[in-house]
Amino acid sequence: MGRYRGTGKSLTQTRYFFTIRIPAEGISKFQAKYAEHSVFTCRFWRMTSIPEYAGHIVEYTGYHGCAGDSADVIQAEGFKKSVGREQMFGDGVYFFEEIHVARWWAVEHRKHQRPAIIKATVRVDSGAVFETFLQENIVLILEVADGIRRKAFEGKVGPKDTRYLFADAINWICSNEGYTLVRGYRQFQMIASDGNKTVCQLAVREEKFISITERCDVA
């Protein structure tokens, strides 16, 4: 724990596993000091409180639908994360939290000839989980995305193609805040008659947190 010395009311500042207490009158000075590390100007430090469960290990079960050949490689060599701006929740190894969705992905969506599902366990520190659907995180993503967009249009650092700002923002946040797992909801039209279905996905940014537990070849 660090402390910015001074008087006045303090706010608790959290940034991945440590706390800094900043007097209210010192906030702008503190933000200015770290502004050079930010791609946007509206906010870099997040004023929030530390969750009581921070520092605990949390465990998720994920299901990865893929082709049988890919499953062979994964079992032999481990997962390799997907990288690129087209990844909705940023770079990472992607899993569904429901096995039937992983089956649909491999069989119906991707239409693999020899589909398979790999079940895995993901264990990370609770403070390293970034949940995109929380209100404060939605605001943060929008702020970062807007900063990236403005930098792009100003001809400064930032992508010129702004179609993937959501993924760009998540990648920036995770890289700067130290998050290793992203959870988010998205919609798929799994069956035409049922319309869209909202499902939860995991994007694990570091392969070392993944343990393969089981493989199932889909008939």
Question: What's the arrangement of secondary structure elements?
Answer:
Layout: E1 2-3, E2 10-14, E3 19-23, H1 27-34, E4 57-67, H2 68-77, E5 93-96, H3 99-109, E6 115-125, E7 129-131, H4 135-153, H5 165-177, E8 181-191, E9 195-204, E10 210-217
Parallel strand pairs: 1-3, 7-8
Antiparallel strand pairs: 2-3, 4-6, 5-9, 6-10, 8-9
* CATH architecture classification name of the largest domain: Alpha-Beta Complex
Could you describe the largest sheet, including whether it forms a barrel? 4 strands, mixed
The rough form would be described as globular
Count of DSSP E strands?
Answer: 10
What is the CA–CA distance across the termini?
54 Å
Average pLDDT score: 77
What level of helicity do the residues show?
Answer: 25-40%
Uncertain regions spanning at least 5 consecutive residues: 1-52
The number of distinct structural domains comes to 2
Q: Give the H and E element order.
A: EEEHEHEHEEHHEEE
| CATH top-level class of the largest domain | Alpha Beta
User: Reading side by side through the largest sheet, how are the strands ordered?
Assistant: 5-9-8-7
Q: Care to give the gist of this entry?
A:
By secondary structure, the chain is α+β, with helices and mostly antiparallel strands. The protein contains 5 helices and 10 strands; from the N terminus they run E-E-E-H-E-H-E-H-E-E-H-H-E-E-E.
Primary descriptors:
three-stranded mixed β-sheet, 219 residues, Phosphoenolpyruvate Carboxykinase, domain 3, single chain, alpha+beta, 2 domains, 10 strands
